[in-house]
Amino acid sequence: DRFFEVATEDTIIKACFGTCDNDGGCTIVTDSIEITFELNTESITVDPTGIFIAGGGNFGTPGDNPMIDPDGDGIYTFTTTRAVGFTSHYTFTNGNCGDWSCKEDLAGLPCADENAFNDRFLDSAMEDMTIKACFGNCVSDGSCISSSVNDLTLDPSLFDLVPTISNG
Q1: What are the φ/ψ torsions at residue 52 (nearest 5 degrees)?
Q2: Which residue in 43, 65, 128, 149 has its CB near the most CB atoms, within 10 A?
Q3: CA distance 84 to 159
Q4: How many CA atoms lie within 13 A of 105 on its CB side?
């Protein structure tokens, strides 16, 4: 929704339907595309407040862009219309947390941009597209099953390697 400050005098509001243009210009983007994000949540317990897409300067903060799962299959979707060539970082959050504590942790994974808070990156969308993802990993086919070691991380606290002397 739009927000209107309390007015103490006559005020003219210039707005455009379906955009945030506030100059009355109502720029129409004719070369737009639809980008659909599909997020598989089978590996997590979904927060009661829902799943959100956020970050990158284009998707706001947790809670701004809710994803939906109308058929209850654990695949949450969000569709947005953007200009051809749209590029942005983005991330998924499990809940509506103001401090980003519910953000997926992709640190050290190949799909994380460490220079952008370990967010994912969408590079130059030129046509309608669907991006399939899994919460907290880099599998990009939506199955959430890792097919290579590139999506795996080693937890050094799991074991200690202690060398011993042996013969033969």
Answers
A1: -135, 155
A2: 65
A3: 49
A4: 5
Q: Is 156 exposed, middle or buried (0-12, 13-18, 19+ CB in 10 A)?
A: exposed
From residue 41, alpha-carbon distances to 72, 93, 162 in Å are: 11, 11, 38
CA distances from 40 to 27, 125, 140 (A): 35, 21, 10
**SS3 state of residue 119:** strand
Would you state the pLDDT for residue 46?
A: 97
CB atoms within 10 A of CB 138: 17
Q: In the Cβ-directed half-sphere of 49, how many Cα atoms lie within 13 Å? A: 13
Strands 86-94 and 120-125, bridge-based pairing? antiparallel
Q: What local confidence, expressed as pLDDT, does residue 125 receive?
A: 93
DSSP label at 115?
G
| C-alpha–C-alpha distance, residues 31 and 126, integer Å | 10
Q: In angstroms, rounded to a whole number, what is the distance separating the alpha carbons of residues 128 and 31? A: 11
Phi/psi for 53 (5° steps) reads -105, 140
- Binning the chain into helix, strand and coil, the percentages to the nearest 5 are 5, 30, 65
DSSP state of 113: B
Residue 12 has pLDDT above 90, yes or no: no
